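Researcher: Let's try something more involved. This one mixes different molecule types, so please make sure each is placed in the same coordinate frame as the others.
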Amino acid sequence: MDEHALVAAARRGDTQAFNKLILTYQTLAYNVAYRTLHDPEAAADATQQAFISAFRALPKFRGGSFKAWLLRIVTNACYDQLRRAKRRPASSLDDMLVDPDHSSLLTDDTESPEERAERQDLGFAIQRGLDELPPDQRLTVVLSDIQGFSYQEIAEVTGVSLGTVKSRLSRGRARLRDCLQREEELLPRRYRPIHR
Amino acid sequence: MLDSLRGSWTTEHRRCQEDLSAFLDGQLTPRDRARVQRHLKECADCRADLDALRHTVSLLRAVPVLKPPRSFVLPVTEVKRQRQARRQRLAYVYLQAATAVATVLLVLVVSGDAVLRYAPAQPGARLSEAPPPATAVVLESAPVAGDSALPEPAPQTTQEPPAPIAAPTAQPLAAEAATEALPAPEQSPQALALEVGAEAADAGTATGTEIVPPQAEGTSPVKAKPSQTFVRAAPPPVSPTPQQESTAREAAQTAVPTTTPLPSPSNTPVPPTATPIPSPTNTPVPPTVEPSPTSPVAQSVPAADLASPGPAPGLWARLEGLRPILPRVEAVLALAVALLLPATLWLRRRQRRL
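Model: All components are placed in one shared frame. Result:
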């Protein structure tokens, strides 16, 4: 069944069909949530909440890109989590230092254990840089450069104009670049030549 | 000169910095793209920034994909839960509607009951008052009579009021006056009076026809001036009702008290404005309408007209018949409201929680 048929079936209340869609998108959704929230628990909660909301809101889905529609719900759930975290900023710093998700990378068989470890470190370093960005810029950078979304898709997901996407991305990348230059020692040696 | 050159270069530099990201993605217009390329040739800083930016983006692309800590597949119970929620929403809507309907009905019944209870004589009055219209009409005709130069003017009109006592006769009076020979007792006299009155209105002087009411089963045949009837022809058309008289009599028996006040209007000799107005505008209002107990005259006129339409008395009688069960209906409705209202509120609270 292609995505269109699955969406149609899910709209009629077919949970099996919707669960197939979830299986297709849960990794993407979770990664976006994690990179935005930098908290595995909060990211999982946001993802689960987003899927439940999406299933509920499915009758309102008016066609177009299902992926963009779904990601919009995911990002809204992330903003909710951020708001909640702001109210009780307890353990986010600890999470950042422990970063338990470094052990849960999707495995790639062609990668050596060293390469894998280095990529984990890279992820950690990048995440620190992302954490310093305002949420809007962070989300735009995550969608564009980590998830490979086009400007148009990002505009759909975030509900802003192409111009806004462009400027958010420009500022976010520039800040991230400056941050990585400042803390270059955090980058694995392989990824280091970021000198001017 | 140098300053302005430097200024434009700074502007160019800043614009280039802003455009580097889009330049990298090939998202610039050809013109902007050419401008950035031109500046990059001159500016080492921008070249370095572009390289660093490119590297940053490549690092971001190399960020490992994380495995979700668990599957987010929805349990089937979720669907059940949602269906239940939907059903609950529907139930809430229905409950709300039911509560509203029950409340409105309760208010209607209670107020209707109150009307029936506090104006119990009204229906009877209406029916028994069938004659009074004659008096009322006579009253209103009084001034007109004077105008139309009747042979027998005011004095007679004042004599008429007694007519109410002879309930059935008063009406026929009018009819006869207008129509001379319409023996059909079923036909409503008023209607006839109306017809004839309409025609003869111009020939208002056509007086002098003394008529003996053919359907005057009652008592004293009264002589009426045609002109008077013409005047009263104004009242709305009336449908003939055979049972009307009988019901009128019955009602008269049951509701005697109201008949007595009637003479009082006649005592006030010339209320031409007060009485005539109601009669023309008076569309046969169903008996459920609250009778205004204020002016007996105003009441009597419409009442007479009301009494004539067939269904009215029957409907009223039926409503009257309902009276004994009204308390029970009220109790049931009150119980329904008492049960529905908390249920609705409870469901609403539950829905908010969902």
